[in-house]
Amino acid sequence: MEYIPDTLYGVARQLQRSKQLMPIVLVKLYIYQICRALGYTHSMGICHRDIKPQNLLLNPTTHVVKICDFGSAKMLQKNEPNVSYICSRYYRAPELIFGATDYSTAIDVWSLGCVFGELLLGSPLFPGESGVDQLVEIIKVLGTPTRDQIEAMNPNYTEFQFPQIQAHPWSKVFRSRTPPEAIDLIAKMLEYDPIKRIKPLEAAAHPFFDELRQDPSISPLVLPQNVPPPVLFDFTWQELKSVDVATRDILVPKHARTATNWPDVVGAEAGGGGGGPPPVDAPADSEQRE
């Protein structure tokens, strides 16, 4: 793996010290790449279990993001218990706080939603000082979970005595200039019910990222210092086979389709009815640090 000089945490801290917010185009670029990386690892049943800014390598020149530190990662197996005391506190999914041991890769999506919110706010979204306080911070925003939501997070949890707090509108959590598409996507990532949380590649197909998919010959993506964007659409069949056709059609814009990421290109060029699936190779945005 090539040397990557910084982390998302380091870059975000520099902006925080200078009292600046990250440009929204960079938020899109970074969160998109993490969605893609998680889509790939989740397609193989691997849960990272410690997504946080410190574990997201970032090259601030090329804007390439890679997930690192797979020391807590695990291939989740059905009916096999897992430790619930996992994941750094600010980014810990509520089912883990409720003590669930039969959780899913959806805990990574919650963590990513917290990272996403942090980039928009310039500070942690749920800055709890303990496990219990972490839940309090979440409830302040999402409101008190219902009995059904608690059961969805951990069916073995029986203590339902929580103060009844109404959900705080997401639009009031973030600054007034925050794009509504960003707020909509965060709300889909930060659902109490793990099953209702958006999947990583579904998230990558969200309208919030449409700017990244525009044809560069018509509307080029403008980044700071006018650097070209990293490669974003070199999908593999391992990634694409996990989503439906409509989502696939969004993920790979027509201008970016090749014989590798879009098998029908092979058939079209040969005058046939479509090619086979592209080879299964790990995408550049999901690598394990040695």
From TrEMBL:
Any one annotated GO CC term:
cytoplasm
Instruction: List the SUPFAM superfamilies hit by this protein, alphabetically.
Output: Protein kinase-like (PK-like)
Q: What InterPro entries does this protein's entry cite? A: GSK-3, Kinase-like_dom_sf, Prot_kinase_dom, Ser/Thr_kinase_AS, STKc_GSK3
Identify the residues that the record assigns to the Protein kinase domain, covering every copy: 1-209
Q: Which GO terms describe its molecular function?
A: ATP binding; protein serine/threonine kinase activity
Residues spanning the signal sequence: none
Q: Which UniProt keywords apply?
A: ATP-binding, Kinase, Nucleotide-binding, Serine/threonine-protein kinase, Transferase
- GO process annotations (BP): cell differentiation; signal transduction
Decide whether keyword Magnesium is in the record. Answer: no
List the Pfam families: Pkinase
Give the residue ranges for region: Disordered.
262-290
Q: Which family does it belong to?
A: Belongs to the protein kinase superfamily. CMGC Ser/Thr protein kinase family. GSK-3 subfamily.
Protein name per Swiss-Prot or TrEMBL? CMGC/GSK protein kinase, variant
Give the taxonomic lineage as stored in the record: Eukaryota, Sar, Stramenopiles, Oomycota, Saprolegniomycetes
